[in-house]
Amino acid sequence: MQAEITIGHEAGKKPVLFDVEELLATRLLVQGNSGSGKSHLLRRLLEESAEMVQQVVIDPEGDFPSLAEKFGHVVIDGSAYSPPEIEALARRIREHRASVVLDLDGLEVEQQIRCAAQFLNALFEAPREHWFPALVVVDEAQMFAPSVAGEIGEDTRRMTLSAMTNLMCRGRKRGLAGIVATQRLAKLAKNVAAEASNFLMGRTFLDIDMQRAADLLGMERRQAERIRDLERGHFLALGPAISRRPVAVKIGPVQTGHQARAEGLVPLPNAPSGGMEALLTGDLTADVQGTSPPPPPPPAPKPAELVPDTPAVATTGEPAAGDSVDRDAELAALLEALAREDGATFQSASRLYQTFLTRARAEGFLGVPIDMAAFRRQFAIASARLERLDEPTRARVLQLGAHVDDDILAPYLAIAAAASQGLSAPEDEELARVYGTSSPGRIRRLLDHLEKLGLIVVREEFGGGRSLLVPGLESQPAE
């Protein structure tokens, strides 16, 4: 198999080749300030080698999902999975040799770091029979291998630094070839940067970064000024996979990604006197609440339908109608008891379902009373604790939630229940409990997601207050 790719050309138009097999053994470090062309370089490298080797991209900025359109990479949204699921995905990726992009754009910085660390550790700890060669690209590596803790916790820093060190120091024997890209060499942990044998250095202006880049390229300190003068998309390359001496290379074009925005000045719009103020401040309420409410949901299910009717216990003769109702009530009681336990909503759905089935069997139910999909929905309803509402209000809230996805049903019902009682929003602790998180960031993203779906309207005030309105619900918080 052809192992060389062309990443660009020298000034004399001579192609600069990159030996992918050598890269697997020697690793790569890319450095350059914002706007120097790092992402373009990484994309060129990934595109040219996509048919040769498995690729895993850690993407904190959402720059690389477009690789899926042409090259078939699987895009994994890091915010959609729990930590155990992220680790399980990493193991499957190694087993099936899938090229993937781990998109972390939906997470806060510390969550991005912890998610990436767990993912990299799971890649590293894969069984020996799955040690296939793979390029592991980590963009913005100064986040994941910081030289100092900075704003993240020390435990998070140790966790991510261990994962990155394993990738760069011990990953070769496991088939993992680390490619790290950073804006600041001074912010990247030295034991991570030192393990790379190939370097592509782009434009940088700070003296400390220029000096470190010059040292890695084997250049004299007085030659470091050359790095400051590089144009966008131009890099100095050195390493056994590229060249035995520093060579200037202009990175070639790419096939995927968004077109860069036009540079330069654009004339400001002409507006009559006072017209711009009217455009900005006029009818803000309608803009916040949306132009039209969502279509009304279908009628609410009857209370008895909340737990599907299923034959639970083998009996002699035909069961009486009252027996079926009693068994439904027993199932509902099991669900409610499970939902009320401390920490229940913080557990995975599969674990909760197994606990529910165990308790159901202990109560005399044979087989599977309800399937996993029905359990998730009924558990979400039980977690929202709607029994404090009167029956008509409870039915209306359930009607509004009839078409809401299971994973966001519980917090939506809690918000709707609070609004129906005239409250501006549920207590933060209650919203965190029903959603199963202790992260304020996840709560904020949940509210943003619900608002984008048209399920709620969030009204923020500069004084720190917040009201949550539910379209289609008659009773709302007082203005």
Automatic annotation (TrEMBL):
Organism: Erythrobacter litoralis (strain HTCC2594)
Biased composition (Pro residues): 292-302
SMART domains, per the entry: AAA (SM00382)
Tree of life domain: Bacteria
One Pfam short name: DUF87
Matches recorded under PANTHER family: HELICASE MJ1565-RELATED (PTHR42957:SF1)
Protein name per its UniProtKB record: Predicted ATPase
SUPFAM superfamilies: P-loop containing nucleoside triphosphate hydrolases (SSF52540)
